[in-house]
Amino acid sequence: MAKKASNFRNGAAAKAKPSPKGVATIRTPLTQDPHAVRDTREKVLEVAIGREVRAFRKKLGITVADLAAATDISLGMLSKIENGITSPSLTTLQALSRALGVPVTAFFRRFEEERSAVFVRAGEGLDVERRGTRAGHQYNLLGHIGSNTSGVVVEPYLITLTEDSDVFPTFQHEGMEFLYMLEGEVTYRHGNNLYPMKPGDSLFFDADAPHGPEQLTQLPMRYLSIICYPQSSAG
Length: 235
Description:
Blueprint: E1 16-18, E2 24-26, H1 45-60, H2 64-71, H3 75-82, H4 90-100, H5 109-112, E3 126-128, E4 138-141, E5 152-161, E6 176-190, E7 193-197, E8 202-206, E9 211-230
Antiparallel strand pairs: 1-2, 3-4, 4-5, 5-9, 6-7, 6-8, 6-9
């Protein structure tokens, strides 16, 4: 028997309750504000250096006092450096790099690093072969960014199934996956659960469980599949 997915059901602290219109709302706010803008002062070299010094220090688990003792730099000066108030000399940067075990160039990473973006026009995605290709599933990769600052790789696909497509037993891979139905209907399996999906329906799940189309109800069918996994496991 098909089971319906609970809205935002993940066993975590965040819980959903229906609004008067039946739309789920989150009781516990999510931790990230998608509309927040980073301090524009990050573009200032001193601020960028200070943030890197603080990040490397915290990564080592040492205090400002520990770093001051290791570099012979005063606590006050270190505080000004980490807060981007003063511009450290090359001698000071060299002392910090030795104490923190990183090259001097590492302090300029945030200032120099560019953020990537991929723009794909309609119909210009890259057709790729994945496990379901042999079952007649067409995979259109809509963009890819490899090494990035988030530590996460995201693969967005537009998947098309036609009369020539077959159901595929199961997929199973590392990471999380999000599906959004655009056209057609399908009964999708995740683990032991079956979800009848129509245009506008979505499914978000742990991709380590066996999953895949169980029954192609109405064809042609198109849906977005967004897969994300740790950058360390890419390839």
